[in-house]
Specification:
alpha/beta; 19 helices; Ferritin
């Protein structure tokens, strides 16, 4: 959690950047604009991170107590040209940066080089790039867009993990090149020095903010790469991905991974304790996700290439401890090229007309024996009985895989008004019972009953928790609803208390722990509203039966009085010679 002072700093910064950038690029649509801004933010980050490491190294080279110390007496003294040249040479050695997981940034990719030369290359110019040995080499640049593309190309060449990730199309933009120069100067104002916020914190926040703004601007298309932060935070807070493998098969721009990092940091954990795996079919979105991870220094495995999760699974052998996703709702014709006997369809073949249960079973297939998962689906997934969906849902329930269902309020998404819910599934109960039965001791059973996050869990066999969160949240503007931190805590704490058997109670209108018999009576429909019932009446209100009797009697009295008044009016009118 950021302090109020930090939050004010970030809000002021994002407003300034968004307003200024909009003035500079009015002719671009949101899809183009997105790549222009996010590519420059990425370039600024890697350059800033490089500069910070460079400053650390220079201090270490001059620190007599450090292993990297370079004794100036060996070079003729601190003021000698040889000493300065040797310091410069060492500062240009790649290994010093890569050993600290800092991207190597060659001279033509450094932000200062772009800033110093962006006006000079309008119309074309030959630039001199400094070399480690103190010499220079010439590069021909035809425009500011070409200057940026050249910088991104050099970063990809020098850092193989970024191969194919960066969007090198600035020279092709049909805009006034001087506007790009002004944009470079604008992004240069993003500070990488702050009293309490790191460069990664600041630029990561800016990147995430711009993703959200572009999602709003692009409308329905924006939903392909962006899941609202509050929903992602809720799933992460409930699953608690502290350690292990985290997988998102429909990762968009990587929001679940970012929030996992925030969660781990907030709870004094180590981001290095988790391994990130993702997949995305859209090439530009795949690029956004990779840049998102790189900005935060998160190691990742997004497969060899952008690819369909169904026909070109990039992680076929992965068994993840946590699986989280917001796949496309009600996706049609998803199964072209997919075998009807695919091993992922353990609980039934999903229908061609709707991929909801294909996503769900794909995620289950990749879930580790003690793993847990959460995914967003359209509300229809909780009740539909068409084309085998009801059969699949029943099989999931009877195999004790469904742990919790959360109904969400409307207006949370930028791209759809389809009502949505969150499914939480886990294999730890199935695995726990198997281990306990095999071990034959209460101690072994207790040991087996731990969540992937390390919580000690009770045996919830044959139970599902239903949470109706439709009345939570607040309208942050005229269009979108959001969750407050109190809302997130209320849902997550209810779930964790139920898991642990620690102080949980059913709350009418909000949560209910239902057993398998109750779910059978509802034909295996999982809509929370069917189970939680109506909210409890306030303590000072009348019982329902007494209130209805009183109101009925009051209504009868009012009807009688109405009849009396009508008769009186008729009598008075008759006395005046009028008749109704």
């Amino acid at each position: 959690m950021t302090s109020q002072e930090e939050q004010k700093f970030l809000v002021d910064l994002e407003k300034k950047l968004w307003t200024s950038a909009n003035k500079l690029l009015p002719s671009l649509d949101a899809a183009q604009y997105k790549h222009v801004m996010l590519g420059l933010v990425f370039l600024k980050y890697v350059s800033d991170a490089f500069d910070i490491r460079r400053q650390e190294l220079e201090a270490q080279f001059k620190d007599s107590d450090h292993e990297y110390y370079m004794d100036p007496e060996e070079f003729g003294g601190e003021d000698s040209e040889d000493y300065a040249a040797d310091i410069y040479y060492e500062l240009e050695q790649r290994d010093y940066y890569t050993e600290e997981n800092v991207f190597w940034v060659s001279p033509e990719s450094r932000w200062q080089f772009l800033q110093d030369n962006n006006k000079a290359v309008i119309g074309g110019a030959t630039l001199q790039v400094p070399m480690p040995e103190g010499e220079t080499r010439d590069i021909k640049i035809s425009s500011i867009g070409h200057l940026i593309d050249n910088a991104l190309e050099a970063i990809e060449v020098d850092n193989t993990k970024l191969k194919g990730v960066l969007n090198k199309r600035y020279a092709q933009l049909q805009i006034d090149q001087s506007k790009l120069g002004e944009l470079i100067d604008l992004v240069a104002t993003i500070p990488f020095a702050h009293a309490t916020l790191s460069s990664k914190d600041i630029l990561g926040h800016v990147y995430e903010y711009f993703l959200g703004q572009f999602a709003l601007a692009e409308g329905k298309k924006g939903g392909q790469f962006y899941t609202p932060k509050s929903i992602v935070s809720l799933i992460v807070q409930m699953l608690e991905p502290f350690k292990g493998r985290v997988y998102d098969p429909a990762m968009g721009s990587g929001g679940f991974f970012v929030q996992s990092e925030h969660f781990i940091t907030a709870h004094q954990g180590k981001i290095g304790d988790i391994s990130i795996y993702g997949q995305e079919a859209n090439h530009t979105t795949w690029q956004l996700a990779a840049m998102n991870m790189a900005i935060r220094g998160i190691d990742f495995n997004f497969g060899k290439e952008p690819a369909s999760t169904y026909t070109n699974n990039q992680h076929p052998d992965l068994r993840a401890d946590f699986v989280m996703a917001n796949p496309p709702f009600n996706m049609k014709e998803w199964d072209t090229g997919v075998d009807d006997n695919d091993p992922r369809w353990q609980y039934g073949r999903p229908p061609t007309g709707n991929a909801n249960f294909a996503w769900l079973q794909h995620m289950l297939y990749h879930l580790a024996p003690n793993g847990s998962m959460g995914l967003l689906l359209a509300n229809g997934s909780m009740s539909s009985n068409t084309n085998n969906e009801g059969v699949i849902r029943q099989a999931l329930i009877e195999n004790d895989l469904v742990e919790c269902m959360v109904a969400l309020p409307g207006q949370l998404f930028t791209n759809t008004q389809i009502p949505a819910c969150i499914w939480f599934l886990t294999k730890n109960d199935v695995q726990g019972r198997t281990n306990a039965a095999g071990a034959g001791s209460a101690g072994a059973a207790k040991k087996a009953r731990r969540s992937a996050a390390g919580r000690s869990l009770r045996d919830r066999s044959g139970e599902v928790l239903f949470i109706d969160a439709r009345n939570l949240g607040y309208m942050k503007d005229r269009v979108l609803r959001d969750f407050s931190q109190d809302d997130l805590d209320k849902v997550a704490n209810t779930y964790h208390s139920w898991q642990e058997g620690n102080g949980y109670e059913d709350i009418p209108g909000f949560c209910k722990s239902a057993n398998l018999e109750e779910i059978k009576k509802h034909d295996y429909v999982l809509t929370p509203g069917r189970y939680v019932g109506a909210a409890a009446e306030e303590q000072d209100s009348e019982p329902f039966a007494e209130k209805m009797a009183r109101l009925t009697a009051q209504l009868k009295t009012q009807f009688d009085e109405s009849e009396r008044l009508e008769a009186e009016i008729k009598k008075n009118l008759a006395g005046l010679g009028y008749e109704l």
